[in-house]
Specification:
Low-confidence stretches: none
Largest sheet: 6 strands, mixed
Helix content: 40-55%
Mean pLDDT: 96
Number of strands: 11
Radius of gyration: 21 Å
Bound molecules: 5'-O-[(R)-(carboxyoxy)(hydroxy)phosphoryl]adenosine, zinc ion
Amino acid sequence: MLVLGIESSCDETAAAVVADGERILSSVVASQVLTHERYGGVVPELASREHLKKIVPVVDEACREAGVSLTDVDAVAVTEGPGLIGSLLVGLVYGKALAIALSKPLVGVNHLEGHIHAVLLENKTARRAGKPVEEARFPALALVVSGGHTCLFRVEIRVSADSGSPVFSYALLGQTRDDAAGEGFDKVAKLLALGYPGGPIIDRLARFGNPDAVEFGRIRMKGNPLDFSFSGLKTAVLYRVRGTSLASEAEERRAWRKTVARATADEIRAHCSQATLDIVASFQRAVITDLVERTLAAAATLGVQSIFVSGGVACNSLLRERFAELASVRGLQVLFPSPALSTDNAAMIAAAGYYKLAAGERADSALTARAAFPLGTEKS
Ligand code: KG4
Ligand code: ZN
């Protein structure tokens, strides 16, 4: 079954063709980084306009790269939510219109479910390529960590008695009460005038700083210990910077950034003092320690066999290192998508949509975008 996936929930316009939920024939992502860079964050209205410009060429390119025409596609899977409403609507309406015009089945996919399926898609791709990768184990604990989300889910799989196809179920165990982890990276990078998006640049710069230089302390959560909170950490960075030489250095960097079209990580590093690199490394370590330790504590409590880590922050090198180290000590399987499948893409939407379609799910003309769209049941 060839599924055309469409994703437009935030600032990437993406389309992909995936065969049988596991073979990526194409995955095209048009990034809007250049549009939002100067604002240090996504501007919703600009994002919607960019999606409008890109949606048709991106879908065309996905078909061309896959060597198929739209009429060869068996079904359309489109992100239904959560996300920016204006952005979601562009992909959703286009996907719906295509399905109607082509008389093909349509299914709506939760963006977070897509991120979880990116892990399974990667696992299948690697195994098919003959890499020595173990098959994903269930039940699993999924950490979805991006610019918009930081959530922990328990993921189970069963085979449907009716269709004989796998059906996935999700239980939300915890989520951020304020900023998402990626948002924390982006806001700290904005504060220090390091560039946008903040995660990749902080990841690069942190290698040159001392993570022990600033002690931010552990993030303590009242109530659900599997919830997250990163806004306090961001404020702690602000207090360390405000009124100090770090603030004037950031202003100088901001002025310099305006004079150059693009700056490489090495050029940005050359404009950073050791004290700035130290604060960046300490901040990154505090975020990553919290994500890894909270997730491993949840894994121990729930007795899961496997941890899936996905979303843009799953690209972080320290996060990957720490998870790999600690999970192997505890005999847990830990799986990540490749960087291209970690950040927003449509292959993950096509893969998640495939299982829904195989289980007989179909969206009708009432399908609409949902800015808030919880995944799974909530467990306290
Ligand atoms: O999944 P994604 O592409 O979009 C959302 O659904 O939000 O994630 C983007 C987020 C941004 O906040 C970005 O700063 C962060 O992922 N990110 C990283 C890294 N690469 C991307 N954060 C930390 N380290 C990275 N290497
Ligand atoms: Zn995402």
